[in-house]
Amino acid sequence: MAAQTISPNEFKSVVDGGNFKLVDVRTPAEFQSTHVRGAVNVPLDQVSPDSVPQPVEGKPLYIICQKGGRGSQACDQLTAAGLENVVNVEGGTTACEQAGLPLVHGKKTMSLERQVRIAAGSLVLLGIGLYFVHPAFLALSAFVGAGLVFAGVTDTCGMGMLLARMPWNQACGDGSCSTKAAKAA
């Protein structure tokens, strides 16, 4: 079942009305860089009914990411775990910024999507370059290509999940993100 969605313009009226719960499922570093005011960070790999704040009674729990894909995955996980009335903010933080929602800006970081493109491209080039050392290294490029096809078909990126766990994607100096902050909310 596809996750329920709300457009950024509809969500803007929710934000203007106040009294809502919004969970940002991007990495802590992405969250620290820019997020919608009022959001709590719970990275996608930590999303569970126990890790997210309880929604305001009678209102949905809103989920957001960068462009909508990870938010949809989080909604599916929470719905499958029994949480009802979970709504993905369509287009993510990027669309909310374009719609004029209030954002909090912090230290600029590189998006996870960009990190995946850099890592995949580097591994393909490395495999091709090492081909001159031994032809078997061409398998590295083939493996990365197969992984990209799998990611496109399933909308699940193993390299992205791995990179999300790297130390540079865990930076959160102001204490506003993490599962602990979500439980306190």
UniProtKB/TrEMBL annotation:
Domain Rhodanese span(s) in chain numbering: 16-105
Where does the source fall among the domains of life? Bacteria
Q: Which SMART domains match?
A: RHOD (SM00450)
InterPro entries given in the database record:
GlpE_sulfurtransferase, Rhodanese-like_dom, Rhodanese-like_dom_sf, YgaP-like_TM
The transmembrane segments are: 116-134, 140-164
Q: Which residues form a coiled coil?
A: none
Q: Keyword annotations for this protein?
A: Membrane, Transmembrane, Transmembrane helix
Pfam families according to UniProt: Rhodanese (PF00581), YgaP-like_TM (PF11127)
User: What protein is this chain from?
Assistant: Rhodanese-like domain-containing protein
Organism equals Aeoliella straminimaris
